[in-house]
Amino acid sequence: MQDINKSFGGVAALRNASLTVAAGEVHALIGQNGAGKSTMIKILTGAYRRDAGQIRFGGREVDFASPQAARDGGISTIYQEINLVPLRSIAENIFLGREPRRFGLIDWRSIHAQADALLTSFGLSIDVRKPVAQCSTAIQQMVALARAVSADARMVIMDESTSSLDEREVELLFTVVRRLRDDGRAVIFVSHRLDELYAVCDRVTVMRDGQTVAAAAMHEMDKLQLVTTMLGRTLAAVIEHPAAARAEHDARARGEVRLDAQRLQAAPRVNDVTVQVRAGEAVGLAGLLGAGRTEAMRLMFGADPLAGGSLALNGAPVALKSPRDAIRRGMAMLTEDRKAEGIVPELSVRENMTLVCLPTLVKHGVVDRARQKALVDRFIVSLGIKLRDAEQPIRELSGGNQQKVLLARWLAASPTLLLLDEPTRGIDVGAKAEIAKIIRELRNAGMAVLLTASELEELVAVADRAIVMRDGRSVAELEGEKLTEASIMDAIAFGAGGPSALAQAAQTVTEIDIPGEHS
């Protein structure tokens, strides 16, 4: 794929992006959320049509008009959500739509024999008559791979295929991936787990902001270089530009522990996470996409069941069964996807803002409109929400102002602990600065704040402490002068107690030039 361009509604998703994958190699395609990985894959597999550029596959130029055309051309894709028929058998799923026939009837003996031979070649011994619904996620991944091989796929794309697997299942899957590679097939492997990339991939392509910014053999890029390349910060830049001074706030005494989460577990995304948040401080959860930050936060809010570990609020152990329990105990959570889990597009700003606190505004079964209006007007002024009036549909507001309305929704419930999952995602630079200012003001007023942010610069500017997560585990805690972009990258790359590559590099180099940094 060379010089691929793609725009949606005038917004460029890909700009002269490139991807070259050889037969007989496992090729990692990585980048932060929104980097363009999914768009590249969808163009390659015919789900999207490119605006410009060239695609060559197997030595000839191709232009797949649909995913089916791509499959017919030898490209199979295995997504995070596996596309199998649960109540059908393993064998049926492998040959679905391509069943061998004899005398016009499905040849079940042949189907079972071929399916068994395929899975045996993967090193699996399993009854192919077993319904897929009774199989583990790892086995379902194997079935999807077997289906691709049975269709004579020359390229297999694995999009976050390990996200729901434990370590043993991942190694089982990697054994099969290596066999595909040794058989001469090309594998594109999309993952945010750095250790997995080095375990199974031969080469890597890094994307950022819709562009290809690096392509190299895996052994040529260490973990730190991968992280800095994905985030778009040179080593020299993060060493020379420490976080803004937090001395004034650090000098203030912080209050009591509002949240104490110890060794939280909920496989496969959260394996061992410990977080404490005190009144009057903002704590950041740092890590790459897929590290388990959102999943850990959902556990703390009672949105997902806790498999292990303990939670305490204000010093008292709690067992949160639902977000309702969390809200009753003074918690609030602003979710990452404001369109899917936040705003109600057809409702007004007034209605959206008072959804959570509405029961407190009801008197004799009727909403007290005067109190509701006073509350809404107060937050419009205090948060600087730009709108025509409170009856304006929220869908008409900018992303930044929608985010402020959602923040006001939770603040209206008077929480003592505020969880913010990517509060600045998808909003412009000016709105990001305003949201950051609001977070600092809430912290200074004594609220306990726990937040995530993919942009390290934003997290470092707001947080007093940072818990660094990697592969579902909290691996480092940083605060004060140690809380810098450089130290976070170091912890992401190596974890707690790993080699301090940044410190070593600072003494020996002035800059690692990232391809595409100056383009």
TrEMBL record:
InterPro entries (UniProt xref): AAA+_ATPase, ABC_carbohydrate_import_ATPase, ABC_transporter-like_ATP-bd, ABC_transporter-like_CS, P-loop_NTPase
Membrane topology classification: Peripheral membrane protein
Entry-linked PROSITE patterns: ABC_TRANSPORTER_1 (PS00211), ABC_TRANSPORTER_2 (PS50893)
Keyword Nucleotide-binding: yes
Keywords: ATP-binding, Cell inner membrane, Cell membrane, Membrane, Nucleotide-binding, Repeat, Sugar transport, Translocase, Transport
Gene Ontology cellular-component annotations: plasma membrane
Superkingdom classification of source: Bacteria
Primary location class: membrane
Compartment(s) of residence: Cell membrane
GO molecular function term, any single one: ATP binding
Pfam families, sorted: ABC_tran
Protein name: Sugar ABC transporter ATP-binding protein
